[in-house]
Amino acid sequence: MTNTGKRGRPRNMETMNAILQASYDLLFEKGFAAITMENIAERAGVSKATIYKWWPGKAAVVVDGYLSAASQRLPVPDTGSVYEDLLTHATNLTRFLASDEGRVITQLIGEGQIDPGVAEAYRSRYVQPRRKETRQIIDRGIARNELRSDANPDLFIDLLYGPIFYRLTMTGEQLDDAFVKHIVTLAFQGIQRS
């Protein structure tokens, strides 16, 4: 990884990984609200100044720590079928969200309601990359003539993932493979080629 445009030396990967791992571990041990930059620095064996060189605050480093681990568990499929890719992507995400590790997302969403920094970090570092991945799947489907060329990818993404996050954060109803397949099938009907 290279410097993000800030002045100074590029990030030392070993130090950066120690910080990300420390923030990830503390997130599960303490919960987001109880973590401090002092905790992260102490656990990583670095100074707070080192962390602040690379991240603007606690929300950014904790979200990055969480996502550096989580993103490895959510690869973007390319099976040759846009329906199967969307189903696999949504199923993998839902299984992750239903896991102990994935439930941390609800903490971040909750904290984001009172802390704009957390909301921005969550949107820019988690939501937007996931939307971009889904958009790539949809664009492949349009290019292969599996989807209508006038399909609205952003609306489709909302229709697909909105119900999943609604259950996760509002109703608490079960998130299972059958639910995901039903949602993907219904949403897919609106954009597939006839």
TrEMBL record:
UniProt xrefs under Pfam families: TetR_C_11 (PF16859), TetR_N (PF00440)
Keywords, alphabetical: DNA-binding, Transcription, Transcription regulation
Gene3D superfamilies: Homeodomain-like, Tetracycline Repressor, domain 2
InterPro entries attached to this UniProt entry: Homeodomain-like_sf (IPR009057), HTH-type_TetR-like_transc_reg (IPR050109), HTH_TetR (IPR001647), Tet_transcr_reg_TetR-rel_C_sf (IPR036271), TetR_C (IPR011075)
Coiled-coil parts of chain: none
Lineage: superkingdom: Bacteria
Known DNA-binding region: 36-55
Protein name: TetR/AcrR family transcriptional regulator
Organism per entry: Paenibacillus aestuarii
